[in-house]
């Protein structure tokens, strides 16, 4: 199994994460506010992505916009490596037996979802820490190892996998929509006469980001809230019992629109994230062809 898809996938994912991380932080703050069950977060303090970014920078310092970035980069370095490596290597194997060398779209969706679930489960602990650091209103954050040990000591191993199910469900939706949409859109644009160029990669990746945001947002809200629940007034309190309970409670107390809370920053991040990710990945593919002195793409 070629290693390039794994390594280049991780590099592209970390690059995209670094560029768009402050937007993700604003999305997290917007998603966790307004929770009736948690008095710490009941107030609607932020009014949109730009207001969130400005408020956090003013009250907590510019560095707070990147709080939790080390966990996010660690996650993307492993998550991106796993999901892209699995997806493109398995796709390449099956395409050899498909008519015309093209894998049907519904199989691409299933493959993308499966790769996303595997990568998500492995990296859930880093995602838990990312969410908590972003939701943290303190000016300092612990180191990587200390943060993991603190959660393990106070909440056990289970705490590191809090929200693992909605995290996997979101990963299945995002990867089942996002990666196949990019591949199919790019393939159709090229078939329609467009060149395999940066503009084609840009349009395909932006469209993939939009669809991924639309389908995944309710699960993303549930995932964020489940991961952020931990200690209230020095007592272990479970506000949400599962994905369905989180979705129902959120819609009941805050309205159905709350399930898409943070959609603008989600797309404002996922759109540029996809553009940065796929265009970086395409350039790494071109680099690999140059490195090997051939035009044949092996992954």
Q: Helix and strand layout, with pairings?
A:
Layout lengths: L3 H29 L16 H12 L8 H27 L9 H31 L8 H12 L1 H4 L3 H28 L6 H31 L2 E2 L2 E2 L6 H12 L8 H30 L7
Antiparallel strand pairs: 1-2
Structure in words:
By secondary structure, the chain is an all-alpha fold. The protein is 72% helix and 1% strand. It has ten helices and two strands. It has helices spanning 4-32, 49-60, 69-95, 105-135, 144-155, 157-160, 164-191, 198-228, 243-254, 263-292; strands at residues 231-232, 235-236. It has a two-stranded antiparallel sheet. A hairpin with a 2-residue loop joins strand 1 (231-232) and strand 2. Helix 1 packs across helix 2, helix 3 packs antiparallel against helix 4 and helix 7 (164-191) runs antiparallel to helix 8 (198-228). It is globular, with a radius of gyration of 20 Å. The termini are close together.
Helix content: over 70%
Largest sheet report: 2 strands, antiparallel
Question: How many E-type strands?
Answer: 2
What is the overall silhouette? globular
* End-to-end separation: 9 Å
Low-confidence stretches: none
Written as H for each helix and E for each strand, in order along the chain, the element string is: HHHHHHHHEEHH
Gist of the model:
The protein has helices spanning 4-32, 49-60, 69-95, 105-135, 144-155, 157-160, 164-191, 198-228, 243-254, 263-292, and strands at residues 231-232, 235-236.
């Amino acid at each position: 199994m070629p290693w390039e898809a794994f390594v280049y996938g991780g590099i592209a994912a970390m690059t995209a994460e670094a560029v768009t991380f402050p937007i993700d932080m604003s999305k997290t703050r917007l998603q966790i506010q307004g929770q009736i069950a948690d008095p710490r977060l009941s107030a609607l303090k932020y009014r949109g992505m730009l207001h969130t970014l400005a408020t956090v920078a003013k009250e907590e310092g510019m560095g707070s916009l990147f709080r939790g970035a080390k966990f996010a980069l660690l996650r993307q370095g492993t998550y991106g490596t796993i999901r892209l490596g699995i997806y493109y290597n398995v796709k390449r194997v099956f395409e050899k037996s498909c008519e015309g060398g093209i894998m049907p779209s519904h199989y691409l969706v299933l493959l993308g979802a499966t790769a996303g679930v595997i990568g998500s489960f492995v990296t859930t602990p880093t995602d838990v820490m990312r969410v908590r650091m972003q939701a943290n209103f303190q000016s300092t954050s612990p180191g990587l190892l200390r943060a993991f040990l603190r959660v393990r000591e106070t909440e056990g191993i289970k705490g590191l996998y809090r929200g693992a199910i909605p995290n996997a469900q979101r990963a299945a939706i995002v990867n089942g929509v996002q990666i196949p949409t990019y591949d199919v859109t790019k393939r159709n644009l090229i078939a329609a006469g467009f060149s395999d160029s940066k503009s084609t990669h840009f349009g395909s990746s932006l469209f993939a980001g939009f669809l991924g945001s639309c389908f995944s947002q309710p699960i993303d809200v549930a995932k964020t809230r489940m991961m952020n629940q931990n200690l209230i007034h020095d007592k272990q309190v479970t506000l949400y019992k599962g994905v369905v309970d989180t979705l129902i409670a959120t819609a009941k107390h805050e309205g159905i629109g709350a399930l898409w809370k943070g959609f603008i920053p989600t797309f404002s991040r996922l759109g540029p994230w996809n553009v940065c990710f796929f265009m970086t990945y395409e350039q790494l593919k071109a680099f690999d062809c140059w490195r090997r002195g051939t035009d044949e793409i092996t992954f």
